[in-house]
Amino acid sequence: MASTRRALISGLFRHPVECAAVFNDLPDALVFLSPDRRVLYLNRAAEVLTGLSDPEARGLPCRHVVRSNMCSAQCPVDDVARDAGPVCRQADVINRDRQRVPVRLCCVTLRDLRGAVVGFMEVLEDLRPFEALETRKGQAYQFGGIVGRSPAMERLFAVLPGIAQTDSSVLITGETGTGKDFLAEAIHQLSARSKGPFVKVNCGALPETLLESELFGHQKGAFTGATENKPGRFRLAHNGTLFLTEIGDLPLPLQVKLLTFLDDHVIYPLGSTKGIRVDVRIIAATHRDLQDMVREGKFRQDLLYRLNVVRVHIPPLRERGEDVRLLMDHFLAAFVSDFHKQIKGFSKDALKCLLDYPYPGNVRELKNIIEYAVNVCQEETIQMHHLPSYVTEISVKAAGPSPEVRERDGGEVLPEEALGAGVGKGVSWGVMERRLILDALVRAKGRRGRAAQILGWGRSTLWRKMKQHGLMDGDEG
After folding, report:
1. Can you give the pTM of this predicted structure?
2. Which of 72, 131, 138, 285 might form a disulfide with 180, Cβ 3.0–4.6 angstroms?
3. Pair 119, 255 in one domain
4. What is the CATH number of the domain that holds 339?
5. pLDDT digits over 96-129, tens only?
6. Surface-to-core class of residue 360, CB atoms within 10 Å of its CB (0-12 exposed, 13-18 middle, 19+ buried)
7. CA end-to-end span of the chain, whole Å?
């Protein structure tokens, strides 16, 4: 081997072969460690699995990079260091996004020609595709991380395996909290690219200058602070899937670069004039109406056509009928197991309250509500007082004894049900949503961050919906 900057395989072939070119094309994560168990090298699959780049990981202790549940006890490196031979075990690792990733971890000792230990190599195989397969076998109503038995979801599940087997671009639409991320990863895991990386980028999380480098990479010296070459997410996703969430937030200049990539599958890192060909499938997701954004000049029409080859829409939870109860039971079972509680179900009042609630934050909000209730419940059944106050307050308002009371909103006279029960009783969802926002803002004493928490939304979602309903400072109402 040569230096860690340019490691070579020597002795097998007529000329030395550069390791990185070989290792980066392998689907499994490789981690090379020094004798004192510090990281010497990560291949591309290991970068995707851990969320750390090779330069970031070098020199760090293995336990700070791999972060396995075996690091504190039963460390496989301990066993191979005692000459126990190669070790293979199933384990969980926690990536940079704090996600649990089940893996098969194999570890071997590396020795020089004299037999002295020069380091260790760990191979980590991502087992998420196999977990997803076992889950689908046991539960016909589940696809990846999405649970549903309503007719709308069954129709969705029926077409997804066929979509997964193609390489066509996919555009996933749906309101915030409906499960677009889970659906994108499920499509990847069912595809022929499942052994390749699944790389996610939130297009609205970074400013344009950083986002371009994050997506397309940069060359050393391309700008101030660029001290190393950076591959970018497109190259990290080679032979796999790149998931661009919140695609509506992608700046127009980067929309042009994405369109160019979709045409020729070549990227140009910042500071480089040489193109790099990568084999990547694009899945994009948005909660916005991209057609409206095209009319407003905020989104390129030609890019919309290229992304919209296959369009998949996830309906909001309020349109999924029986799925609400199914999801309640699903989340209850999961959290009861995680928190080691003895909760057996919901009281009659709590069940009715949860079934009547409109869930503006969709499945994510329902999950948060059940998690909260399981946390605070010390009884065998979840009661009304175990639910978040904003949920029960809406239920009380909906059951109030004054149906004749009227409330004026935007010139339209509405029954008091608009304050609570809402949808399906002659009141539009827009009016209901506006009432929920106002109620949350009142209880949060005007603090938008707290109001967003009450509603189970992100701050950006609350800001967007306040603007939509004319609730921003300076707007009418």
Report:
1. 0.62
2. 285
3. no
4. 1.10.8.60
5. 878 888 888 888 888 888 888 889 999 988 887 7
6. buried
7. 70
